[in-house]
C-alpha cells in the first residue's frame, strides 16, 4: 500500500486528505505538513492524520504530494531535496509549475507527475488532469489516477496542454460562481428575495450540470431545447450575444492561460 505525504494543508491539501480517508485509506498511511501549528492541530484533531515536518514526511512516504501555492515552491523544494528518498514519486498540484522545475530542484531521476485539480475536490467532484514528467512510469501515473479518483474525475493530457487545463477547469469553478452571483443579483433586481433567488439559481445550475454529464447531446442542443421561438430565453440569449458575453468568456480563459504560462516561467 502506497504511503502518501501531503505537503501543504490548504483547501486542496485538506480536500485530498479527506477524500483519501473517505475512499478507504487509513489515517496511518497518510501524513501532512503545515507551517501554521494551529491549523495542523485542528486538522489532526478532525481527520486523525499526523502532522509532521518535511523530512519526516519524505522518510515515511512513497508518494509526496506538493500542494503549496506557486509562490511558496522554492523553500519547499529546497527543504525537500536533501531528504527525498530515491524512487519516491513526487506529485505536484501547483498551478503553472512544470515538471522540469521539480526535476531540476530534486535529486536526479526523481519521478514527477503534474496535476491540475480544482476546488470541487472539496465535495468529491474534482476534475483533475495529470501529466508525467521525464522519469514517471505508466504504473506511477496509474497510482496517481487511483489516488485522485477518490475525489473526482481524472484525465491524462500532455504537459504542453496543462496551461490550457489550468485556465479551463482549474480556474473554471470561479467562472461558474461569478455567473451564479450575477444571476442571483438579477433575481434581486427583479424583486425576488436573495434566499429565493439563490435557491432557484443553484438548483438550476446543479440540474443543468447533471444534464450535461448524463446526456449525449451537445450543449447547443440542450440550450435549444429551452429556447422557444419568440420566447423569453431567446430574448435573453440575444442580450448575452449583444453584450459580447461569449467573446468575453473566451478572452478571460485565454488570459488565465497566459497567466499560467507566466507562473511556469517564474514570473510570480
Automatic annotation (TrEMBL):
Pathway noted in the entry: Amino-acid biosynthesis; L-proline biosynthesis; L-proline from L-glutamate 5-semialdehyde: step 1/1
GO molecular function: pyrroline-5-carboxylate reductase activity
Subcellular location: Cytoplasm
Catalytic activity: L-proline + NAD(+) = (S)-1-pyrroline-5-carboxylate + NADH + 2 H(+); L-proline + NADP(+) = (S)-1-pyrroline-5-carboxylate + NADPH + 2 H(+)
Cited NCBIfam families: proC
Domain Pyrroline-5-carboxylate reductase dimerisation: 159-263
Protein name: Pyrroline-5-carboxylate reductase
First-listed, main subcellular location of the protein, grouped into a coarse class: cytoplasm
Keyword Cytoplasm tagged: yes
Family: Belongs to the pyrroline-5-carboxylate reductase family.
GO biological process: L-proline biosynthetic process
Stated role: Catalyzes the reduction of 1-pyrroline-5-carboxylate (PCA) to L-proline.
Enzyme Commission number(s): 1.5.1.2
A single Gene Ontology CC term: cytoplasm
Key words of the record: Amino-acid biosynthesis, Cytoplasm, NADP, Oxidoreductase, Proline biosynthesis
Amino acid at each position: 500500500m502506497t504511503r502518501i505525504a501531503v505537503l501543504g494543508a490548504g483547501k486542496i491539501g485538506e480536500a485530498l486528505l479527506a477524500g483519501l480517508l473517505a475512499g478507504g485509506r487509513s489515517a496511518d498511511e497518510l501524513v501532512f505538513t503545515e507551517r501554521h501549528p494551529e491549523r495542523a492541530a485542528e486538522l489532526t484533531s478532525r481527520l486523525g492524520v499526523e502532522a509532521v515536518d518535511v523530512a519526516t514526511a519524505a522518510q515515511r512516504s512513497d508518494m509526496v504530494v506538493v500542494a503549496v501555492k506557486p509562490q511558496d515552491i522554492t523553500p519547499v523544494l529546497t527543504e525537500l531535496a536533501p531528504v527525498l528518498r530515491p524512487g519516491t514519486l513526487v506529485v505536484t498540484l501547483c498551478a503553472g509549475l512544470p515538471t522540469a522545475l521539480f526535476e531540476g530542484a530534486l535529486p536526479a531521476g526523481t519521478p514527477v507527475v503534474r496535476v491540475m485539480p480544482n476546488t470541487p475536490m472539496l465535495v468529491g467532484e474534482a476534475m483533475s488532469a495529470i501529466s508525467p514528467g521525464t522519469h514517471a512510469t505508466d504504473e506511477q501515473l496509474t497510482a496517481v489516477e487511483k489516488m485522485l479518483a477518490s475525489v473526482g474525475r481524472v484525465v491524462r493530457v500532455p504537459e504542453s496542454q496543462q496551461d490550457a487545463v489550468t485556465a479551463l477547469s482549474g480556474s473554471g469553478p470561479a467562472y461558474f460562481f461569478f455567473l451564479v452571483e450575477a444571476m442571483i443579483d438579477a433575481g434581486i433586481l427583479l424583486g425576488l428575495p436573495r434566499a429565493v433567488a439563490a435557491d432557484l439559481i443553484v438548483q438550476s445550475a446543479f440540474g443543468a450540470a447533471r444534464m450535461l454529464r448524463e446526456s449525449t447531446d451537445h450543449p447547443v442542443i440542450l440550450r435549444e431545447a429551452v429556447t422557444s421561438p419568440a420566447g423569453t430565453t431567446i430574448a435573453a440569449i440575444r442580450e448575452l450575444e449583444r453584450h459580447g458575453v461569449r467573446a468575453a468568456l473566451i478572452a478571460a480563459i485565454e488570459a488565465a492561460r497566459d497567466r499560467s504560462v507566466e507562473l511556469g516561467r517564474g514570473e510570480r
